[in-house]
């Protein structure tokens, strides 16, 4: 997702922007940050939930981006290249610490007398329980599963973002889903949410 004031760049423009950032052009660095920060936020939010560390991890992502831009060769879109760095930041975070209980909120609060309020409250609670299960998974399995089942990305795109083969990516998603399904059977609310995610991943 990009800012409404920014548009996607052509490949040559991406390389020009990367070179300008590498040369220390502050305006170019600010432009790159504004172009990609919403995508990075969304990606990390899907993988980690509403972690209290989210803003720090976004900052760490862009620190790594600017340190590594000299190696950008335009073999993938700049956003995809930055997404891979964001996922490495998420992976490092998941390996080093157990995230706090997720507080993922994907829908706005509604007035208590709104007929949809109870439904949305249940959806939010289901997601909170799902992220508690995801905390138990191997980091690579969790990332692959959340990108596919929650963010709705095709498996081939997930494989590309994770710099992994499609076979390995499918295996990670399958193992994660098997564990999520096993634990969700004990919770009717979570089982309903997991059933919905199966439809997204098909």
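^ structure tokens above, recovered residues below v
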């Amino acid at each position: 997702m990009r800012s409404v004031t920014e548009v996607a760049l052509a490949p040559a423009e991406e390389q020009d922007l990367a070179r300008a950032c590498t040369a220390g052009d502050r305006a170019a660095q600010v432009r790159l940050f504004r172009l990609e920060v919403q995508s990075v936020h969304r990606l990390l939010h899907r993988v980690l939930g509403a972690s209290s560390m989210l803003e720090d991890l976004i900052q760490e992502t862009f620190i790594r981006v600017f340190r590594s831009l000299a190696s950008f060769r335009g073999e993938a879109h700049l956003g995809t290249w930055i997404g891979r760095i964001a996922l490495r930041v998420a992976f490092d975070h998941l390996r080093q610490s157990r995230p706090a209980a997720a507080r993922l909120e994907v829908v706005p609060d509604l007035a208590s007398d709104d007929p949809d309020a109870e439904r949305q409250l249940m959806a939010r609670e289901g997601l909170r329980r799902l992220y508690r299960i995801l905390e138990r998974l191997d980091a690579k399995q969790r990332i692959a599963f959340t990108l596919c089942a929650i963010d709705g990305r095709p498996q081939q795109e997930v494989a590309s973002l994770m710099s992994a083969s499609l076979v390995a990516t499918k295996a990670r998603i399958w193992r994660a889903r098997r564990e999520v399904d096993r634990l969700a059977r004990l919770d009717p609310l979570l089982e309903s949410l997991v059933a919905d995610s199966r439809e997204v991943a098909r």
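The domain at 117-201 is CATH 1.10.10.10 (Arc Repressor Mutant, subunit A).
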